[in-house]
Amino acid sequence: MSRGATGWCCLVLWLPACVAVHGLHIHDYLYFQVLSPGDIRYIFTATPAKDFGGIFHTRYEQIHLVPAEPPEACGELSNGFFIQDQIALVERGGCSFLSKTRVVQEHGGRAVIISDNAVDNDSFYVEMIQDSTQRTADIPALFLLGRDGYMIRRSLEQHGLPWAIISIPVNVTSIPTFELLQPPWTFW
């Protein structure tokens, strides 16, 4: 796809993530849709880890997004049983991105989504890089804006739900613009 075509695609899709943030373009993002709870039934944008973790070989039509307990996931998880064969939602801070990914992997998680711990962050994506330990991780690791992570966790708390149901990854280029439901708090 040419440079002009990428700009055209971003304009048509009206994705705030299309604005180049540190040189990122639409193909540098991964998208997932929350299916339940309904009040946050939006398509969210995340960035994959730069130099560690796996990739999605399978599209999950319905999989649980389970908030880790404790949220920073730097050690043993009290709800690790619920993360097995699901995707964990983790908060940034306390340890490296790779350490969080390995904790989720050790609990049998299929992927980890790490949201920024700055709940007012609705536009700045952090580049997740490997720490200096030479360890590896095999599951996909994604970075989510702090505002998005906060809103997902808040909705789950309000509804008394232990997890959200999501579809991941979502191919946004196949969704008509008028059907592309992004969180209203991310529009610039």
TrEMBL record:
GO molecular function: peptidase activity
SUPFAM superfamilies: PA domain
Residues of the PA domain: 65-149
Main localization of the protein described in the UniProt heading: secreted
Signal sequence bounds: 1-20
Keyword Signal appears in the UniProt entry: yes
Keyword Magnesium: no
Subcellular location as annotated: Secreted
Gene Ontology process terms (BP): proteolysis
Keywords: Glycoprotein, Hydrolase, Protease, Secreted, Signal
Cellular component GO terms held in the UniProt record: extracellular region
Highest taxon in the source lineage: Eukaryota
One Pfam family in the UniProt entry: PA
PANTHER family for this protein: PROTEASE-ASSOCIATED DOMAIN-CONTAINING PROTEIN, PROTEASE-ASSOCIATED DOMAIN-CONTAINING PROTEIN 1
Function: Plays a role in the modulation of physical activity and adiposity.
Name by which UniProt lists this protein: Protease-associated domain-containing protein 1
Gene source species: Cricetulus griseus
Gene (UniProt): Pradc1
